[in-house]
Amino acid sequence: MTKITHILLFSLLLLIMQLASCTNQNKEAENYLISAKTAYENGRYDKAKLKIDSIKALFPKNFDVIKQSITLLNEVRYAENTKNITFCDSALKAGEQQLKMLKSQFNYYKDQYMDHGMYIPKNYPLDNALGTNSLRSAVEETGDMFIESVLSNRSINHNQLKITRNDTTFVETNKVTADGLNYKVGNYEIVRFTAKDENGLAKFIYSFQNEPLSLTFIGNKTVTTQMSQTSKKGIALSYELYNLMKQMNELTIEKQKSLALIDYLETKKSKEEK
User: Which of 54, 175, 256, 272 has the fewest CB atoms within 10 Å, counting from its CB?
Assistant: First the structure.
C-alpha cells in the first residue's frame, strides 16, 4: 500500500468520524429540544427554559434546532405569563375583599390642602395623641405609611424614637431633619417618621403589640413612657393596611408586566407570519 493510499484512507476515516460526531451532536440537540417540549407541556416552564438555554450553549452551530428552540421559548413565555395573569387576578380579587374589611376599621380623611387622602385608625384618631406622650399613625392613599410622635409639655427638640421590649430587645428610628412635617404647636412637639426614617419601628410594634413596650423620645434629652394598648393597636392596623396595599400594588405591576409581554409576543408572532 502506497503512502498516498495511506493518506487517503486516513482522511476518509477522519471524515467518517466527523460525520458520526455531527450526527451524535444533532441527535443530542434534538433530545434536549424534546425534553424542553415535554417540560413545557407539563407546565414546568423553568425546566423548559433551562433546557432551551442549554441548547444555545452546547450546540451553537445547530441552527435548525436553535431556531425551533426560540419558537418554543416564545410559547413557554406566553404560557408562563398567561398563568401569571390568572394568579394575579385571583390574588387581587382576594386582596380586594381583605382590603374592604380592613379599611372598615379606618376613617378616610382629606381636606382642600391635601393632594391625597389618608386612612386613620378608628380606634386611635390623630387627635387622641394630643395631651399625651404617644405615637399616632395613618396610611396615605398612595400606600405610604407614616408614624407621628407627639410629645406634650416638654421641649427636648426630639428627632428620634426608641421602642424597647423587656429591657432587652429594641428598635430605633433614624434621626429626622426638621421640615414642614415636624413642628411645634403650643406645648406639643410633633415629628413625622416616614418609611425611610422609621427603620422597622412599625413592624416591631405590630409583632409585639400585645406585650408591654416602652417609648423613648430622643433629643437633647430623653423622655420615656409606656405605650398604650390603643396606640399599639392603631399602629398595628396601619401596618397591616400598608402591607396589604403594597402587596396589591406589586400584584398590579406584575400583571401589567405579563400583559405587556404577551402583547409583545403576539405582535412579534403576527409579524413573522406575514
Answer: 272
d(C-alpha 139, C-alpha 208), whole Å = 20
CA atoms within 13 A on the CB side of 217: 26
The Cβ of residue 196 has, within 10 Å, a number of other Cβ atoms equal to: 8
Please list the residues that pair with 169 across neighbouring strands. Answer: 165
Q: Is the pTM for the entire model greater than 0.70?
A: yes
Pairing relation of β-strands 188-193 and 183-185? antiparallel
Phi-psi region of 43 (alpha: psi -120 to 50; beta: other; left: phi over 0): left
Give the Cα separation of 31 and 36 in Å (integer).
9
On whether the 106-252 domain is CATH 1.25.40, my answer is: no
Reply yes or no on whether the pLDDT at 12 is more than 50.
Answer: no
How many CB atoms within 10 Å of residue 87? 14
SS3 readout for 41-83: HCCCHHHHHHHHHHHHHHCCCCHHHHHHHHHHHHHHHHHHHHH
DSSP 18-32: HHHHHHHHHHHHHHH
Closest CA to 147 of 253, 90, 227, 220: 227
Residue of 147, 241, 250 whose CA lies nearest to 196: 147
Residue positions counted in the chain = 274
Percent of the chain scoring above 70 in pLDDT: 88
C-alpha cell read off for 34:
424534546
CA atoms within 13 A on the CB side of 220: 4
Q: Provide φ and ψ at 215, rounded to 5°.
A: -115, 125
Q: Strand 222-226 and strand 169-172: pairing? A: unpaired
Q: Where are the domains of the chain?
A: 3-100, 106-252
130/109: higher pLDDT: 109
